[in-house]
Specification:
This protein is α+β, with helices and mostly antiparallel strands. The protein is 17% helix and 22% strand.
């Protein structure tokens, strides 16, 4: 069949769609599809932790790494542990990673125990850093309400004496006053006869209120101790001067004339102005008038409503002459009889029978020959064959026999002997086993060592030593040392006295009717 092409178009062209056989499909059931297909689509990323999860993980891991708290001893019985025995310290440090890097080791506790890998990674360094975050917790300023009762005056007035020098005259027409009577006493080992006020001493006490900033006067007088002729007796007086800043200063002086003519008073020494001896001239008119108040007890002049209690004492038992040359010429408390000079350490015999030592094994002991500069002569008593008693801080007591000694009084002594375990050579293995069970292998244990006595534990002995012996001077503060000045005056205000008794003090003014 011929195909005619006409005007560039096909005529009678076969329809290609007629050659394709149609396919019949099945409609999908969405309910059944959901049962088979997972329609929840996720990103291919791991589960993300929150900040809280990180904090929880940190504390869980920290609790696993911190270890047990050491068993601190409450040495001073204040309710807080502050001391570790050498055994407990050794056990604790041996359980931490700086000692051995093992899977069960804990964080190093102290900076001093840290090895190279753990510098700045200790509990101590962590504590120091945390302190910088907790200033508002550690430095809380708490205002405690004042619960003291308000003091109320018990009386409505007081006796006013306008001329104290002429107000009261003590007389006994028939015989001498009691403190004038002649008596015989032994003073500083010497038998002395004289008036009672010089042999037995005396005390004058009084309440005083001064009505002005200036002026001087006698508060109590017997005889005239400062007279150029026939000086006798004692006087408690008040004087005033003006300091270098034009402030008025009131001060109190007790002067006593002794039988040999010596005039004593209650001044002390201050910086650059020594206490004067009785053989020297009086400090009055020797030191400048604008500084003389610094050597005597002062009474403030800024509150003329305040009352003051004055206590003046003369004590003949005080070794005033022996108080010079001890290095206290400028110490106020010393001349007020409150300081006992330190004893010469060479005279201390408290430590003749025991010493401190360190056990490094069941057969080896090192002892100290001195403590804070004080010689411990116990080492002279330890010889070959000596029997010692050793006590540790856990209360374990060991009896020992010495068979070796090496050292000198200027160094520590190394002793060998049967310190722990059986006292015979064949028991070395048994001794090592006992030592390791008690203290741990390789542990160094501080012990106290006694010759002929059973000493206390070393921590107690060390406390006792520290309280009695020191590299520098140790002085004791007491009520009466029998050193210083024979004449003493001490003053306390009524307000301070009431505060010391637990009262809250307001105004001390008292309104009285004039008569």
């Amino acid at each position: 069949m011929a195909i005619t092409i006409k005007e560039r178009y096909f005529i009678n062209v076969l329809n290609l769609s007629q050659l394709t056989k149609p396919k019949i499909g099945t409609k999908i059931n969405p309910e059944k599809a959901r049962e088979v297909l997972d329609t929840n689509i996720f990103e291919l990323l791991p589960t993300q932790t929150t900040r809280q999860d990180q904090i929880n993980d940190f504390f869980n891991e920290f609790n696993d790494l911190i270890g047990q708290a050491p068993p601190f001893d409450d040495v001073d019985l204040d309710g807080a542990g502050e001391s570790l025995t050498s055994t407990a310290s050794g056990i604790d440090s041996g359980s931490r990673v700086s000692y051995e890097n093992k899977s069960t080791a804990y964080i190093t506790r102290l900076n001093t125990h840290a090895n190279t890998n753990n510098q700045g990674k200790t509990l101590e360094s962590m504590r120091n850093r945390l302190n910088t975050y907790l200033g508002d917790v550690d430095n809380v300023v708490q205002e405690i309400p004042d619960q003291r009762p308000e003091y109320e005056n018990k009386s409505s007035g007081f006796l006013k004496i306008r001329k104290p020098n002429q107000a009261i005259i003590l007389r006994n027409p028939n015989q001498m006053l009691e403190f004038q009577k002649i008596v015989t006493r032994t003073i500083n080992g010497i038998e002395v006869t004289g008036p009672s006020f010089l042999m037995d001493g005396f005390t004058i006490t009084m309440w005083v209120r001064f009505v002005g900033k200036t002026g001087r006067g006698t508060l109590f007088n017997f005889g005239n101790p400062t007279s150029a002729e026939s000086s006798y007796g004692f006087r408690l007086e008040t004087r005033t001067n003006v300091d270098g800043e034009d402030n008025y200063k009131r001060w109190i002086r007790l002067a006593v004339r002794e039988q040999d003519g010596t005039l004593r008073d209650n001044h002390w020494g201050v910086s650059d102005r020594d206490r004067r001896t009785a053989a020297q001239s009086s400090p009055i008119n020797y030191y400048a008038n604008n500084v003389i108040h610094e050597l005597y007890p002062n009474i403030p002049t800024d509150d003329l409503n305040e009352w003051f209690f004055i206590c003046a004492t003369y004590n003949p038992e005080v070794d005033e002459e022996g108080s010079f040359g001890l290095g206290y010429n400028n110490d106020r408390q010393f001349w007020l009889n409150h300081v006992i000079p330190p004893a010469d350490n060479s005279q201390n015999t408290l430590f003749q029978n025991f010493t401190i030592g360190t056990l490094t094994g069941p057969r080896h002991l090192t002892i100290e020959t001195s403590y804070n500069g004080v010689s411990l002569p116990i080492h002279n008593d330890i010889t070959l064959g000596s029997e010692l008693t050793i006590v540790d801080d856990m209360g374990n007591e060991h009896s020992s026999f010495i068979f070796g000694k090496d050292g000198s009084p200027t160094t520590d002594y190394d002793l060998t002997g049967y310190f722990v375990g059986p006292p015979y050579d064949a028991g070395t293995d048994e001794a090592n086993e006992i030592y390791n069970d008690l203290y741990g292998e390789g542990a160094e244990v501080q012990v106290s060592v006694g010759v002929g006595i059973t000493p206390s534990s070393p921590s107690i002995l060390t406390q006792g030593w520290d309280s009695l012996i020191n590299d520098g001077d140790v002085q004791e503060i007491v009520a009466n040392s029998n050193y210083g000045a024979k004449c003493k005056v001490e003053v306390i205000s009524r307000s301070d006295l009431l505060r010391a008794r637990g009262y809250k003090v307001d105004s001390l003014e008292v309104n009285t009717e004039s008569s």
